[in-house]
Amino acid sequence: MIAMGAKGFFTDTTVCIGCKACEVACKEWNQLPDDGMFFTAMSYDNTVSLGASTWRHVAFIERPVPLGGQTTAHGISWLFMSDVCKHCQRAGCLENCPTGAIVRTEFGSVYVQPDVCNGCGYCIAGCPFGVIDRRAGDGRAWKCTLCYDRLRGGLEPACAKACPTDSIRFGDVDELRATARARLEQLHARGVTEAYLYGEDAARQPGTEGLNAFFLLVDRPEAYNLPPDPVVPTRKIAPAWLSLAAAALGMAAAAVGAVASSQERGHS
Amino acid sequence: MIQGSNMAECHPVGFRWVMEAKNRGATIVHVDPRFTRTSAVADIHVPIRAGSDIAFLGGIVNYIITHERYFRDYVVHYTNAAAIVSPDFQDTEDLDGLFSGYNPETRHYDMRSWEYEGQQRSPVVETHQEYHELTGEPWSEGPPQARAEHYDETLQHPRCVFQIVKRHFSRYTPEVVEQICGVPRDLFLKVAQTLCDNSGRERTSAFCYAVGWTQHTVGVQYIRTAAIVQMLLGNMGRPGGGILALRGHTSIQGSTDIPTLYDLLPGYLPMAKGQYDADFGQYAFHNTGRAGTWSSFPAYAVSLLKAWYGDAARADNDWAFHYLPHITGNHSHLMTVAAMADGRVRGYFVMGENPVVGTVHSALHSKGLRALEWLVVRDFAPTETVEFWRTGPEIARGEVRPEEIKTEVFFFPAAAPTEKDGSFTNTQRLLQWHHKAIEPPGDCRSELHFMYHLGRRLKRLYAGSADPKDRPILDLVWDYPTIGAIAEPDAEAVLREINGYTVADGKLLSRYQELNDDGSTACGCWIYCGCYAGGVNRPARRRPRTEQTWVAPEWAWAWPSNIRLMYNRASADPGGRPWSERKKYVWWDAEGGRWTGYDHPDIVEAKPPSYRPGPDAEGMDLLSGTDPFSLHADGKAWMFAPAGLVDGPLPTHYEPQESVIRSPLYGQQCNPARLEWDRPDNPYHRAYNDPRFPYVLTTYRLTEHHTAGGMTRWLSWLSELQPEMFCEVSPELAREKGLRNGGWATITTARGEIEVRVLVTDRIPPLRLEGRTVHQIGLPYHWGSRGLVRGEAANALLPFVADPNVSIMESKALTGNIEPGRRGRGRRVVTSGPIVPPLDHDGAPRDLRPPASGAGSGKRPRER
Prior knowledge:
The structure holds two protein chains of two kinds. By secondary structure, chain A is an alpha+beta fold.
């Protein structure tokens, strides 16, 4: 369980202007290498996805449909969304990690200890969002740290600090939830009826038990390359073990029964 | 209204406040050829043909007048709408696109018919005309002298400004807007209504623009049209109103206030002119305003000369006025580069700029650099401008060999802002101090260091000279204290000099009204006077907003006199009462007998609203208590400009130098006063319907890179975000030309050819214009041949052609062609010869009079 006062992000995509200051601030603070210089021709997105060296990533979604409340001549819209590690309340990467390299910090964030990680890669399979990845040439797993070093120093994470429009808000998750719900009501009142929150709590996203970094979106999750119903794989371990145990018990019972009956026959 | 600007992408930090306003209920309108990151978060996006904004804004002017949506009390009292204009004035409506006074031989206007009726003719206007006749240069700058003699406050007189404006814009109907701009009329009407509904006593609207408006052959008039809209709606000098010029760098405002421009001295004092400003008396006579702030011109000029030449500036030697360099014509950037290419310039300093990528026609610029004796570049990295002799496209293709270039190149590594003290002056005239955080590495030095030590060495070089021509260097006061091991000049000492002081006892001045014309004061820039008052570095103030009023006067310092909103007298009605409680800002305190309010009032504080000048009034006293615009001699905002512009007193839609359509309005196709460079290495396309160049091109910036890339293309974190030069085209154009998303294309103009990647997007939609489809091609211009990420420079495609008022290039609207594939070899007309065969005959005149000969564009050479 998460300690009281977990910290996280509320990313409101409706005020994002796609400036990528978050991507750059993240790389600068964390001294991350570039991901290569490749022109993708996918709108203005040339870093493509989150990865071992890109811990904030801005998605650009060009749509042939207008956004609620907006007037355009040709009925188009352009959505921006700064994606990040969700710091799931139930984190698949953490639960998959066999070495104990991935830990839950005092800020409720999920942190990879680079000096412990042995690069086994089990965490990668454990993340339903495809966030964590191993870095080529290094081998270890990397992802957003929620700027653990900055939080220890009383500073907010670099991305939130750099965001010029407060699309990325950092704070206590409880407070962010209240902020997000108020913002959602405001948008609905203004005609942006398609707006909704993604992953704000366990009730809405049981597969992760809620995200410490949750989002306000205006299109279905798949448009942003997010899973519609993410489930942390380890959530299935208990039921799996239970059914395995049931099956084992059944088999054991059958075996015992078989032996008993044969003994009975032998004795008879 | 954001138009001529992609504010979210180019000014993302300032755009924070646009989003804040939107969150509080403001409606954001974005008018732009492309659907950009600004459009994405706007409430209304209006796609428009690049180069047609005057028609769109003119349509709004016509809508406001036709539907009587103007703010009548504001218009009558605070603008020159009621002023009666000379009967000699003839409009473009009368002369098929020309104003009265046009001389087709010189292609300049005689501005005398644009004056007010019966106006006491300003001697300056006469002498401006003399100057023009003497030098061939148009000139209408200097302090506006004009004061109308006759007013009709009913606005009914057929020659009053209001009626002239009404007639002039009457043809800009929604249908004409659709025809010229390609904007559907319903969408146009929605914008016009939205703007009018949000203006008046209770509400105000603001315009934001940037180089999308300025970089046209008729750029200044774009902004004038917006000014007329804002005057009619009463949106100037009031909170939430105004026209915000978004400047392209942190301190571009500062670099015009204390200018890097050839024709200005600090504080917008005109540069001394050739034979014309023969002595200080002439200079002061030519530039002193009849009334208002400019009536104290001699005090500003003498104080500047005292700051620069100290004891050597005396009354008996004309304040050392003859030490100042005198200009002899247009020495603007493009003029200088063309002269350079012709071997008429010896040396060139380039600081904080990468002109080979950043300015138009980069091949012609390179040609200029090859003809220099020496070139000094200060930058963070060896840019294309530094390496033109080694890695330029002409070198790479073997057309020019480095060993044949005699230019000696000096590259000086520059210190970053974090490595030096100094100030930035931002878009809203706010001076903000920045402190040095770390020492610059290695040989990196600040500009201040470079200029100071260069000056010091020059003084040493000339020490002991008896030659009178060396006096300006020897007598220059150049005594800034230095700090630290690298002898960095103390930036605060420079700020003190800019602030000004009394010569006798060195007491710091606190306001520009304290400046004198008798040599008792020294001041480096009169509009900055007071920024260091009391020995306090006011630009360094950082009092949080929670500890002061919402106007935040103690956050940094704004010029002039820490006024945050200029002309704020207009925020109150003629009687001095706020127009509304909601828009209350400054007002007349009758009991206290003074102006007061949230901001420093931009009017003489003790001048009551009822004040009217007597027959003997002079200077500031000539302005009444209802005149908010004190930089004008009549205190009014000018819908009709009786002086100050060289291409007309009113804005008129002209097509760009290269257009896809014949002007539907007039026989006169282009701005008749535009600056052209008629030379073989700068060919123009047909004025319209050029079969070789059927598409509209427009250039722009992206968030991820900074202008010509000197600060960004050497950084991996920025380079990976936009790693290659590309063009943006619509799916319709892609289908028509066989362009593939992510593939290659070659874009051609008569100046050059570049190959680029293709980004196919619905965000640059084709427009319907006169029943046909017009395609526009978008070109970011950040890349060059050096850096981590490379690409061909879009500006290689652009011609030398410019606005006549300010000599700025036209880079936002031109024509060109696109073909799929990498067939281009980067040919450029300067070294490859003609890129396209000339047309057999060119039946598309730009100007009303037919050209004298058939060669080229048929224009007389504009260079001397």
